[in-house]
Amino acid sequence: MKHIKTLSTRDYKESMKKGGCGECQTSCQSACKTSCTVGNQSCEKVK
Amino acid sequence: MIHQYKSNGYNIVLDVNSGAVHVVDDIVYDLIKIVEELLKNGAPDDSGYLAQAVADRKALSYTKEEIEEALEEILALKAEGILYAPDIYEKYIGDFKKRETVVKALCLHIAHDCNLACKYCFAEEGEYHGRRALMSFETGKKALDFLVANSGNRVNLEVDFFGGEPLMNWKVVKELVAYGRSLEEPNHKKFRFTLTTNGVLLNDEVMEFVNKEMSNVVLSIDGRKSTNDRMRPHRGGQGSYDEIVPKFQKLAASRDQMNYYVRGTFTRNNPDFSEDVAHLADLGFEQISVEPVVAKPEEEYALREEDLDKLFAEYD
Prior knowledge:
The complex is a heterodimer. By secondary structure, chain A is an alpha+beta fold.
């Protein structure tokens, strides 16, 4: 493609079928760790 | 549904319903909005038809050939289901709300006490509007048992040691980590522990334990000495920057610059907070997170609506 570069091909439709594995890291969502520990984690399934 | 914006010279297009993210050139960026509207009004996804419809609007200065070429690409993504994806999720909402929920993470306020008196502290200088107190091992043990009992089939469980300043109750932190480890095998669970600290009590013994047991550490520092010491003083008023920086540097290096964050808060006192981020980078930190203060509007350091343009510019 000349005009478009696709960065992320996540397909929510697909994950909707099976549901997620629920293993994403979660943490307290008050001001303290919002983006630190949630925003930059890698997928448990890909690891 | 499309969300599109320009940042740092890039045209970003997020296709909300599929989750796909695309970087596009100007012509596609301009076309995507128009085509979305045309399709919504029943236009066929045919590049010839759409090119004519776009040309009829006379809103863009591109030639018809250029428009057709760009449309081919747009329609190819549509056919792949990663652009203009339909919203198929509404019918799932009922089931989603009925799902059985689990607990997989806890934030333990291990110490309601602090050795700093940060001006913006929601814990009111670690006292949490009440008397100073430290969590007992017994209470923490019950919390970990509760987590395991309510975590369903989740394997990875997160526990944050938070406060106040958790290092003021360090012995209990260590005991709880050991207790948590003892629960892992019999229950088929894995604990990921996190420690948040202001660094005042950080020493070699703590660092060694942290590097062995904590999957993440959050190190509180606001940036430049002037910024940090204004908001993060000791009770007597003296700043904390000089004593914490070398310890944070040592800990970050000992973790190979991974699995930690230096975590700062910006306020109305440092609207040029990108300078603080740059300063933290100059100190050698590679994992940096600086975020806006949450405060009552009457506080002098609270961010105001009129500050937003300046703050947004700092992010760019």
